[in-house]
Amino acid sequence: MRRPGVVAVTAVVSALGWACHDAPSAWEPPNGESPGPAPRQLSFSPGDDRSPAWSASGDSVLYVAEGFGDLARSDAVLVSVPRTGGVATAVFPLLQPDGVPAPAILAPAVDTASGRVAFAQLLSAGGSVCSADATSCEPTGFLPPPPRLRLGRVRVRLPGASATAPDEPVLPLEFDGVEFDATRELFGVTGVWVTRLHPFQRRFNERDELPFRASWEPGGGRLVTSDGLRLLLWTPGQPASVPVPGTEDGSSPTWSPDGSRIAYTWLERGPEGGASCQHFLDSSKGGGIACVEERTSWPIARFVVAAVPAEGGTRIELAEGRDPAWSPDGGWIYFVRPDGVWRMPAGGGTATFVPGTEGGTQPAVAPNGGELAFTRRTAGGARNVWVVGVPP
Questions:
Q1: Which segments of 129-233 does DSSP mark as H helices, in order?
Q2: pTM summary value
Protein backbone atom coordinates (compact mmCIF):
# COMPACT_ATOMS: atom_id res chain seq x y z
CA MET A 1 0.00 0.00 0.00
CA ARG A 2 1.15 3.51 -0.71
CA ARG A 3 1.53 6.27 1.81
CA PRO A 4 -0.98 9.12 1.41
CA GLY A 5 -0.20 11.68 -1.24
CA VAL A 6 2.81 9.96 -2.85
CA VAL A 7 1.19 10.37 -6.26
CA ALA A 8 1.09 13.57 -8.29
CA VAL A 9 -1.92 15.77 -7.63
CA THR A 10 -4.28 16.90 -10.36
CA ALA A 11 -4.26 20.41 -11.76
CA VAL A 12 -7.87 21.06 -10.83
CA VAL A 13 -7.29 20.19 -7.21
CA SER A 14 -4.19 22.34 -7.07
CA ALA A 15 -6.16 25.22 -8.50
CA LEU A 16 -9.06 24.92 -6.10
CA GLY A 17 -7.12 24.12 -2.95
CA TRP A 18 -10.31 23.18 -1.05
CA ALA A 19 -8.52 24.51 1.98
CA CYS A 20 -9.65 26.17 5.18
CA HIS A 21 -6.50 28.23 5.64
CA ASP A 22 -4.90 31.61 5.46
CA ALA A 23 -2.28 32.57 2.90
CA PRO A 24 0.38 29.85 2.63
CA SER A 25 3.23 30.26 5.07
CA ALA A 26 5.92 27.75 5.84
CA TRP A 27 6.38 26.47 9.37
CA GLU A 28 9.77 27.55 10.66
CA PRO A 29 10.40 26.86 14.36
CA PRO A 30 12.42 29.54 16.18
CA ASN A 31 16.15 28.80 15.82
CA GLY A 32 15.25 25.52 14.16
CA GLU A 33 13.49 24.13 17.24
CA SER A 34 10.01 24.42 18.69
CA PRO A 35 10.00 25.71 22.28
CA GLY A 36 7.34 23.16 23.29
CA PRO A 37 6.68 19.44 22.81
CA ALA A 38 7.99 17.97 19.59
CA PRO A 39 5.08 17.49 17.18
CA ARG A 40 5.03 14.37 15.02
CA GLN A 41 4.05 14.35 11.38
CA LEU A 42 1.28 11.92 10.40
CA SER A 43 0.93 12.55 6.66
CA PHE A 44 3.61 13.19 4.07
CA SER A 45 1.83 14.53 1.01
CA PRO A 46 3.58 16.69 -1.59
CA GLY A 47 0.21 18.41 -2.06
CA ASP A 48 -2.51 19.19 0.46
CA ASP A 49 -3.67 17.08 3.43
CA ARG A 50 -6.09 18.80 5.79
CA SER A 51 -9.18 18.74 8.06
CA PRO A 52 -8.11 16.22 10.73
CA ALA A 53 -10.71 14.57 12.96
CA TRP A 54 -10.21 11.89 15.62
CA SER A 55 -11.84 8.48 15.51
CA ALA A 56 -14.30 7.72 18.31
CA SER A 57 -11.70 5.56 20.11
CA GLY A 58 -8.89 8.07 19.60
CA ASP A 59 -6.57 5.45 18.12
CA SER A 60 -6.55 7.02 14.65
CA VAL A 61 -6.92 10.34 12.85
CA LEU A 62 -9.17 10.86 9.84
CA TYR A 63 -8.20 13.54 7.35
CA VAL A 64 -8.80 14.67 3.78
CA ALA A 65 -6.01 13.80 1.35
CA GLU A 66 -5.40 15.47 -1.99
CA GLY A 67 -5.04 12.34 -4.06
CA PHE A 68 -4.38 8.99 -2.44
CA GLY A 69 -2.88 5.88 -3.97
CA ASP A 70 -5.01 4.81 -6.91
CA LEU A 71 -7.41 7.66 -6.15
CA ALA A 72 -5.03 10.31 -7.47
CA ARG A 73 -7.77 11.68 -9.75
CA SER A 74 -10.16 12.27 -6.89
CA ASP A 75 -10.40 15.84 -5.62
CA ALA A 76 -10.43 14.89 -1.95
CA VAL A 77 -10.26 11.43 -0.36
CA LEU A 78 -11.14 10.67 3.26
CA VAL A 79 -8.45 8.48 4.83
CA SER A 80 -7.49 7.25 8.28
CA VAL A 81 -4.05 6.79 9.80
CA PRO A 82 -3.01 5.39 13.21
CA ARG A 83 -2.40 8.17 15.73
CA THR A 84 1.17 6.95 16.15
CA GLY A 85 1.77 6.99 12.39
CA GLY A 86 1.81 4.31 9.72
CA VAL A 87 -0.08 3.33 6.59
CA ALA A 88 -3.23 5.27 5.77
CA THR A 89 -6.37 3.59 4.41
CA ALA A 90 -9.48 4.93 2.67
CA VAL A 91 -12.48 5.35 4.98
CA PHE A 92 -15.14 4.98 2.26
CA PRO A 93 -13.64 2.63 -0.36
CA LEU A 94 -17.10 1.93 -1.81
CA LEU A 95 -18.02 5.60 -2.09
CA GLN A 96 -14.57 6.49 -3.39
CA PRO A 97 -13.48 3.36 -5.33
CA ASP A 98 -9.95 2.76 -6.61
CA GLY A 99 -9.12 4.34 -9.96
CA VAL A 100 -12.42 6.25 -10.35
CA PRO A 101 -12.79 10.06 -10.11
CA ALA A 102 -14.71 10.19 -6.86
CA PRO A 103 -16.79 12.91 -5.17
CA ALA A 104 -14.79 15.16 -2.90
CA ILE A 105 -15.28 14.49 0.81
CA LEU A 106 -14.50 17.47 3.02
CA ALA A 107 -14.41 18.38 6.73
CA PRO A 108 -15.18 15.04 8.46
CA ALA A 109 -16.82 14.87 11.91
CA VAL A 110 -17.11 11.58 13.80
CA ASP A 111 -20.06 10.72 16.05
CA THR A 112 -18.50 9.08 19.11
CA ALA A 113 -21.80 7.35 19.96
CA SER A 114 -22.40 5.54 16.66
CA GLY A 115 -19.20 5.86 14.61
CA ARG A 116 -21.08 7.68 11.85
CA VAL A 117 -19.12 10.24 9.87
CA ALA A 118 -20.67 13.54 8.81
CA PHE A 119 -18.88 15.29 5.98
CA ALA A 120 -19.32 18.17 3.55
CA GLN A 121 -19.33 18.07 -0.22
CA LEU A 122 -19.02 21.07 -2.54
CA LEU A 123 -21.32 20.61 -5.53
CA SER A 124 -21.07 23.90 -7.41
CA ALA A 125 -18.67 26.84 -7.40
CA GLY A 126 -19.10 29.36 -10.20
CA GLY A 127 -17.15 32.27 -11.61
CA SER A 128 -18.62 35.27 -13.39
CA VAL A 129 -22.40 35.66 -13.55
CA CYS A 130 -22.48 35.54 -17.36
CA SER A 131 -20.18 34.83 -20.29
CA ALA A 132 -18.50 38.15 -21.04
CA ASP A 133 -15.13 39.48 -22.12
CA ALA A 134 -15.00 42.84 -20.31
CA THR A 135 -16.64 44.52 -17.34
CA SER A 136 -17.32 48.16 -16.52
CA CYS A 137 -18.65 49.17 -13.08
CA GLU A 138 -19.91 52.36 -11.48
CA PRO A 139 -18.40 53.60 -9.27
CA THR A 140 -15.02 52.64 -10.67
CA GLY A 141 -12.09 51.41 -8.60
CA PHE A 142 -11.37 48.15 -6.82
CA LEU A 143 -14.23 45.71 -7.04
CA PRO A 144 -13.98 42.15 -5.71
CA PRO A 145 -15.06 39.30 -7.97
CA PRO A 146 -18.62 37.97 -7.75
CA PRO A 147 -19.60 35.20 -5.32
CA ARG A 148 -18.45 31.71 -6.36
CA LEU A 149 -19.88 29.43 -3.66
CA ARG A 150 -23.21 28.11 -4.96
CA LEU A 151 -24.28 24.60 -3.84
CA GLY A 152 -23.12 22.09 -1.24
CA ARG A 153 -24.42 19.39 1.06
CA VAL A 154 -23.76 17.64 4.35
CA ARG A 155 -23.94 13.84 4.34
CA VAL A 156 -23.89 11.19 7.05
CA ARG A 157 -22.43 7.76 6.39
CA LEU A 158 -21.23 4.70 8.26
CA PRO A 159 -17.82 3.39 7.21
CA GLY A 160 -18.45 0.24 5.21
CA ALA A 161 -21.89 1.35 3.93
CA SER A 162 -22.88 0.33 0.40
CA ALA A 163 -21.79 2.47 -2.52
CA THR A 164 -25.29 3.76 -3.27
CA ALA A 165 -26.84 4.00 0.22
CA PRO A 166 -30.11 5.50 -1.11
CA ASP A 167 -31.43 6.23 2.37
CA GLU A 168 -28.27 7.94 3.55
CA PRO A 169 -29.12 11.27 5.26
CA VAL A 170 -28.33 14.33 3.15
CA LEU A 171 -28.82 18.03 3.87
CA PRO A 172 -28.70 20.14 0.66
CA LEU A 173 -27.31 23.67 1.06
CA GLU A 174 -27.84 26.58 -1.30
CA PHE A 175 -25.53 29.49 -0.54
CA ASP A 176 -26.87 33.01 -0.90
CA GLY A 177 -25.00 35.28 -3.26
CA VAL A 178 -26.29 35.04 -6.83
CA GLU A 179 -29.80 35.38 -8.25
CA PHE A 180 -31.41 36.65 -11.46
CA ASP A 181 -34.25 39.18 -11.22
CA ALA A 182 -36.13 39.15 -14.52
CA THR A 183 -38.28 42.14 -13.48
CA ARG A 184 -35.56 44.66 -12.65
CA GLU A 185 -33.99 47.13 -15.09
CA LEU A 186 -30.45 48.50 -15.09
CA PHE A 187 -28.61 50.49 -17.81
CA GLY A 188 -31.74 50.13 -19.94
CA VAL A 189 -31.59 46.34 -19.76
CA THR A 190 -34.47 44.34 -18.28
CA GLY A 191 -33.25 41.38 -16.29
CA VAL A 192 -30.53 42.00 -13.69
CA TRP A 193 -28.09 39.68 -11.95
CA VAL A 194 -28.17 40.54 -8.23
CA THR A 195 -25.05 39.43 -6.38
CA ARG A 196 -24.13 39.69 -2.70
CA LEU A 197 -20.55 39.08 -1.67
CA HIS A 198 -21.20 38.18 1.97
CA PRO A 199 -18.18 37.70 4.27
CA PHE A 200 -18.35 33.92 3.85
CA GLN A 201 -18.42 34.32 0.06
CA ARG A 202 -15.45 36.68 0.22
CA ARG A 203 -13.57 34.15 2.36
CA PHE A 204 -14.24 31.40 -0.16
CA ASN A 205 -13.14 33.64 -3.05
CA GLU A 206 -9.90 34.55 -1.30
CA ARG A 207 -8.95 31.35 0.55
CA ASP A 208 -11.32 28.60 -0.67
CA GLU A 209 -12.55 28.33 2.93
CA LEU A 210 -15.85 26.49 3.26
CA PRO A 211 -18.29 27.58 5.97
CA PHE A 212 -20.28 24.37 6.41
CA ARG A 213 -18.09 22.14 8.58
CA ALA A 214 -20.47 20.08 10.75
CA SER A 215 -20.28 19.06 14.41
CA TRP A 216 -22.21 16.36 16.28
CA GLU A 217 -24.36 17.02 19.29
CA PRO A 218 -23.10 14.89 22.21
CA GLY A 219 -25.01 11.63 21.95
CA GLY A 220 -25.27 11.90 18.18
CA GLY A 221 -28.84 13.17 17.85
CA ARG A 222 -28.26 16.28 15.75
CA LEU A 223 -25.65 18.13 13.73
CA VAL A 224 -24.85 21.82 13.68
CA THR A 225 -23.56 23.27 10.43
CA SER A 226 -23.80 26.59 8.52
CA ASP A 227 -24.99 28.05 5.25
CA GLY A 228 -22.57 30.94 5.67
CA LEU A 229 -25.24 33.37 6.87
CA ARG A 230 -26.16 31.55 10.11
CA LEU A 231 -25.75 28.29 11.98
CA LEU A 232 -28.21 25.48 11.29
CA LEU A 233 -29.39 22.54 13.43
CA TRP A 234 -30.18 19.37 11.52
CA THR A 235 -31.43 15.97 12.61
CA PRO A 236 -30.10 13.44 10.06
CA GLY A 237 -33.06 12.00 8.21
CA GLN A 238 -35.11 15.17 8.40
CA PRO A 239 -35.63 17.05 5.11
CA ALA A 240 -34.67 20.49 6.43
CA SER A 241 -32.57 22.26 9.02
CA VAL A 242 -33.54 24.88 11.62
CA PRO A 243 -31.67 28.22 11.95
CA VAL A 244 -29.97 28.95 15.27
CA PRO A 245 -31.07 32.41 16.51
CA GLY A 246 -28.27 34.87 17.25
CA THR A 247 -25.66 33.30 14.92
CA GLU A 248 -25.69 35.67 11.95
CA ASP A 249 -22.54 35.34 9.81
CA GLY A 250 -21.50 32.27 11.81
CA SER A 251 -19.54 29.38 10.30
CA SER A 252 -17.38 26.38 11.29
CA PRO A 253 -19.38 25.48 14.44
CA THR A 254 -18.41 23.02 17.17
CA TRP A 255 -20.69 21.62 19.87
CA SER A 256 -19.58 21.72 23.52
CA PRO A 257 -19.10 18.30 25.19
CA ASP A 258 -21.98 18.91 27.63
CA GLY A 259 -24.30 19.91 24.78
CA SER A 260 -25.16 23.30 26.26
CA ARG A 261 -23.25 25.63 23.92
CA ILE A 262 -22.00 25.94 20.37
CA ALA A 263 -18.77 27.77 19.57
CA TYR A 264 -18.17 29.05 16.05
CA THR A 265 -16.33 31.56 13.87
CA TRP A 266 -18.11 34.88 13.55
CA LEU A 267 -17.12 36.82 10.43
CA GLU A 268 -17.76 40.40 11.53
CA ARG A 269 -18.93 42.55 8.63
CA GLY A 270 -17.13 45.70 7.56
CA PRO A 271 -18.74 48.66 5.76
CA GLU A 272 -21.10 47.78 2.93
CA GLY A 273 -20.09 48.73 -0.60
CA GLY A 274 -21.62 48.21 -4.00
CA ALA A 275 -21.50 48.86 -7.71
CA SER A 276 -23.60 48.59 -10.86
CA CYS A 277 -21.80 46.66 -13.59
CA GLN A 278 -22.11 46.06 -17.31
CA HIS A 279 -20.56 42.94 -18.80
CA PHE A 280 -19.65 43.24 -22.49
CA LEU A 281 -18.98 40.79 -25.29
CA ASP A 282 -15.87 41.13 -27.42
CA SER A 283 -16.37 42.71 -30.85
CA SER A 284 -15.45 39.38 -32.44
CA LYS A 285 -18.59 37.99 -30.79
CA GLY A 286 -20.83 40.81 -31.94
CA GLY A 287 -20.13 43.24 -29.08
CA GLY A 288 -22.86 44.73 -26.93
CA ILE A 289 -23.96 44.06 -23.35
CA ALA A 290 -23.92 40.43 -22.33
CA CYS A 291 -25.62 41.11 -18.99
CA VAL A 292 -25.87 43.66 -16.19
CA GLU A 293 -25.23 43.17 -12.49
CA GLU A 294 -26.08 44.94 -9.24
CA ARG A 295 -23.39 43.96 -6.76
CA THR A 296 -23.17 44.43 -2.97
CA SER A 297 -20.10 43.50 -0.94
CA TRP A 298 -19.08 43.36 2.72
CA PRO A 299 -15.42 42.95 3.78
CA ILE A 300 -14.46 40.90 6.84
CA ALA A 301 -13.69 43.28 9.69
CA ARG A 302 -12.62 40.60 12.22
CA PHE A 303 -12.49 36.86 12.78
CA VAL A 304 -14.04 36.21 16.20
CA VAL A 305 -14.48 33.02 18.22
CA ALA A 306 -18.01 33.31 19.59
CA ALA A 307 -20.47 31.08 21.47
CA VAL A 308 -24.24 30.82 21.91
CA PRO A 309 -26.58 28.49 23.82
CA ALA A 310 -27.23 25.35 21.79
CA GLU A 311 -30.77 26.43 20.88
CA GLY A 312 -29.66 29.99 20.09
CA GLY A 313 -29.60 33.26 21.96
CA THR A 314 -27.22 36.11 22.66
CA ARG A 315 -23.81 35.81 21.01
CA ILE A 316 -20.85 36.00 23.39
CA GLU A 317 -17.48 37.03 21.90
CA LEU A 318 -14.66 34.98 23.41
CA ALA A 319 -11.51 35.91 21.47
CA GLU A 320 -10.24 37.08 18.10
CA GLY A 321 -9.49 34.01 16.02
CA ARG A 322 -11.28 31.28 14.11
CA ASP A 323 -12.00 27.53 13.78
CA PRO A 324 -12.71 26.69 17.44
CA ALA A 325 -12.44 23.17 18.89
CA TRP A 326 -13.47 22.07 22.40
CA SER A 327 -11.42 19.96 24.73
CA PRO A 328 -13.32 16.75 25.70
CA ASP A 329 -13.80 17.92 29.29
CA GLY A 330 -15.27 21.22 28.09
CA GLY A 331 -12.66 23.25 29.96
CA TRP A 332 -10.79 24.68 26.96
CA ILE A 333 -11.49 26.07 23.52
CA TYR A 334 -8.69 25.76 20.98
CA PHE A 335 -8.67 28.15 18.03
CA VAL A 336 -6.48 29.55 15.27
CA ARG A 337 -4.61 32.83 14.95
CA PRO A 338 -2.15 33.74 12.17
CA ASP A 339 0.84 32.35 14.09
CA GLY A 340 -0.69 29.00 15.08
CA VAL A 341 -3.08 27.36 17.53
CA TRP A 342 -4.10 29.01 20.80
CA ARG A 343 -6.39 27.97 23.63
CA MET A 344 -8.43 29.75 26.26
CA PRO A 345 -10.68 28.75 29.18
CA ALA A 346 -14.11 27.88 27.79
CA GLY A 347 -15.77 30.41 30.06
CA GLY A 348 -13.50 33.20 28.83
CA GLY A 349 -10.14 34.46 30.00
CA THR A 350 -6.55 34.80 28.85
CA ALA A 351 -5.59 32.93 25.69
CA THR A 352 -2.21 31.14 25.51
CA PHE A 353 -0.26 29.78 22.57
CA VAL A 354 -0.09 25.97 22.24
CA PRO A 355 3.62 25.05 21.95
CA GLY A 356 4.55 23.03 18.89
CA THR A 357 1.75 24.38 16.69
CA GLU A 358 3.65 27.18 14.94
CA GLY A 359 1.90 27.86 11.62
CA GLY A 360 -0.86 25.39 12.54
CA THR A 361 -4.52 25.52 11.54
CA GLN A 362 -7.63 23.31 11.82
CA PRO A 363 -7.18 22.04 15.41
CA ALA A 364 -8.87 18.82 16.58
CA VAL A 365 -8.51 17.56 20.15
CA ALA A 366 -8.11 13.85 20.90
CA PRO A 367 -10.87 12.12 22.91
CA ASN A 368 -8.51 11.80 25.89
CA GLY A 369 -7.69 15.53 25.72
CA GLY A 370 -3.96 14.89 25.72
CA GLU A 371 -3.15 15.46 22.06
CA LEU A 372 -3.99 17.93 19.34
CA ALA A 373 -4.14 17.17 15.61
CA PHE A 374 -3.67 20.09 13.24
CA THR A 375 -2.43 20.98 9.76
CA ARG A 376 0.40 23.22 8.62
CA ARG A 377 2.47 23.99 5.57
CA THR A 378 6.10 23.09 5.08
CA ALA A 379 8.77 25.19 3.38
CA GLY A 380 7.97 23.47 0.08
CA GLY A 381 4.32 24.56 0.21
CA ALA A 382 2.78 21.16 1.01
CA ARG A 383 0.31 20.95 3.86
CA ASN A 384 0.24 17.91 6.15
CA VAL A 385 -1.35 16.61 9.32
CA TRP A 386 0.58 16.74 12.59
CA VAL A 387 -0.08 15.72 16.20
CA VAL A 388 1.35 17.29 19.35
CA GLY A 389 0.86 16.71 23.05
CA VAL A 390 -0.93 19.49 24.94
CA PRO A 391 -0.50 20.64 28.53
CA PRO A 392 -3.15 19.57 31.06
A1: 199-207
A2: 0.87
